[in-house]
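Per your request, structure below.
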């Protein structure tokens, strides 16, 4: 049987042990980041899930893929260090952007190319390279301070470019947010504004050269995007999988015929 003194010594040992554990947990939490990744595209979702597995037990990473998940209550409950938004098309409440650091990954070298349809606007302007800008969300569209930039090639189809972009974001950019607090710097230079392109602006016309037709097809050849098209009688011809020959004299592509009359009924 333990004496009163023995009980007191054991209680003291337990208290010291609890204090030590509390200090250990505090130390671990100080280096642990809480991140929300919000995205709607399959290539980003796949990489976000891989990141969750990679950093399991090291950092806490939550993935939002639905509009309904981005609520003030959900964000407040998790209380993230960052909300990272690689290709998120939905409105984010002001209460979230004003109280938590929200980061957008924009596919232009900001302040050049603020606004909608950055990839398509870059390609129709003849750009072959761009930079991915990670910026803080503010009240000015794509006008927030910049955390970092990474170069990106615009070769290939839109799907190929988006996948290449995702690899850079998840392998080179997001890991930096997980290792340190980055202070964003104000954008420098005169802003150039892009307007969001409408589906009817993707119509192929008879005055286009082959290289322009190729660009129109490839810049819309990705998941969730309306294809480049032309009208042929009562049919709408939609194109994908474009390939331009080395001498630029031959263009091949897959085509889908859609009956416009039936679609309008």
């Amino acid at each position: 049987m333990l004496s009163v003194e023995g009980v007191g010594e054991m209680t003291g040992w337990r208290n010291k042990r609890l204090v030590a554990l509390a200090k250990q947990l505090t130390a671990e939490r100080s280096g642990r980041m809480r991140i929300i990744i919000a995205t709607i595209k399959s290539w980003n979702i796949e990489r976000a899930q891989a990141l969750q597995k990679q950093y399991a037990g090291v950092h806490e990473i939550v993935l939002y893929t639905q509009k309904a998940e981005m609520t003030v209550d959900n964000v407040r409950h998790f209380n993230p260090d960052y909300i990272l938004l690689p290709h998120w098309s939905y409105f984010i409440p002001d209460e979230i952007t004003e109280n938590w650091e929200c980061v957008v990954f924009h596919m232009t070298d900001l302040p050049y190319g603020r606004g909608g349809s950055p990839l398509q606007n870059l390609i129709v302007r003849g750009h072959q390279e761009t930079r991915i800008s990670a910026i803080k969300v503010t009240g000015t569209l794509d006008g927030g301070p910049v955390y970092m930039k990474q170069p990106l090639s615009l070769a290939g189809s839109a799907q190929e470019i988006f996948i290449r972009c995702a690899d850079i974001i998840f392998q080179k950019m997001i890991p930096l947010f997980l290792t340190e607090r980055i202070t964003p710097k104000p954008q420098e230079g005169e802003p150039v504004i892009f307007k969001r392109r409408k589906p009817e602006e993707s119509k192929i016309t008879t005055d286009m050269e082959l290289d322009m037709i190729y660009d129109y097809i490839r810049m819309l050849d990705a998941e969730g995007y309306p294809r480049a098209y032309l009208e042929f009688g009562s049919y709408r011809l939609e194109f994908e999988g474009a390939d331009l020959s080395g001498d630029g004299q031959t263009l091949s592509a897959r085509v889908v015929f859609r009956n416009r009359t039936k679609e309008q009924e």
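The CA atoms of residues 22 and 140 lie 43 Å apart.

Regards,
D.
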